[in-house]
Amino acid sequence: MKVVYMGTPQFAVPSLQALYDAGHHIQLVVTQPDRKGNRGKVIPSPVKALALELGLPVAQPYVIRKEPDFIEELKALAPDIIVVAAFGQILPEEVLNLPKYGCINVHGSLLPRWRGASPMQACILAGDEKTGVTIMQMAKGLDTGDMLTKAECEIGEKYITELAGELEELGAKLLVETMTLIEEGKITPEAQNDDESCYAHIIKKSDGATDFNEPAEVLVRKLRAYYEWPTLHSYLGDLSVKFYGAEAVPEIPDGEPGVVCSVDKNSFTVNCKGSKLRITELQLQGKKRLMAGDFLRGSKLAAGDRFTLKED
Question: What is the mean pLDDT of the chain?
């Protein structure tokens, strides 16, 4: 098929590669504008980097709905289908209705369970047992279109890095299979039940903040979901602390939430709401990320010290 592909982050990379390997004619790759990194260095999106490697044409409109010339360019291409995967912009109806087979989306959850910007993190936070990928026919609403195909995977104790990696590969494989079914007319769209949906909001830095006034099990899920960003974090005095390894301890707390209740050779334990959290890996502001044992050998942290909630 003639395909216009729209995607930006790493999640969208395997799907682009899979379409290319399957022999689809990728007319154009659309991705978010380059961003500036440290010292003003221009950083292309992961999808743009792959497109250039494959020799594919790239477009980077700032806001598609405000760029009529770009929409006219899409019309001139007359694609059979537009494939979207974590693109980062809402498409206007004019674009949704443009291709022969419309626009389809590689969505990182089992719809209608999690709609919105952060479905992979949301399923970890909620303690869901399974998630997956849904290929969806795009409609005007936010992730409300008919479901075309699905593939499941178990969540278990996976961190977001592992889960996202599994889902992006699962989505790429499912996308190619779905494209074949669409071409052969063997797809039966299934409407979503809105009553079964939840909204996964755009993640903010403050979402990772904690003063330990939550159950340890909840904080462990936050750590896994926000491992890349914004990370589970707190403050020790005036210094921020990021937590990268922790486990729930099913013991009744013996002090206020946030108070360090014990310190041993390789970890320290903090009181939480109704339980305790053992910290095994962390990073103090201005210092290297360390295993807790290494951190403690160079720290004066002791029982009675307290972590607090404080945002910039």
Answer: 96
For the chain, how far is it from start to end, CA to CA, in angstroms? 49
Q: What is the pLDDT of residue 38?
A: 74
Location of each CATH 3.10.25.10 domain in the chain: 205-308
Residue 311 has pLDDT above 70, yes or no: no
Numbered ranges of CATH 3.40.50.170 in the chain? 2-200
- pLDDT tens digits, one per residue of 160-170: 999 999 999 99
Over the stretch 23-42, which tens digit does the pLDDT of each residue have? Answer: 999 999 999 999 887 777 88
pTM of this structure? 0.93
HSE of 244, CA atoms in CB hemisphere, 13 A: 13
Tens of pLDDT, residues 106-149: 999 999 999 999 999 999 999 999 999 999 999 998 899 999 99
Q: Which numeric CATH code is attached to 2-200?
A: 3.40.50.170
**What topology does CATH give the domain 205-308?**
Methionyl-tRNA Fmet Formyltransferase; Chain A, domain 2 (3.10.25)
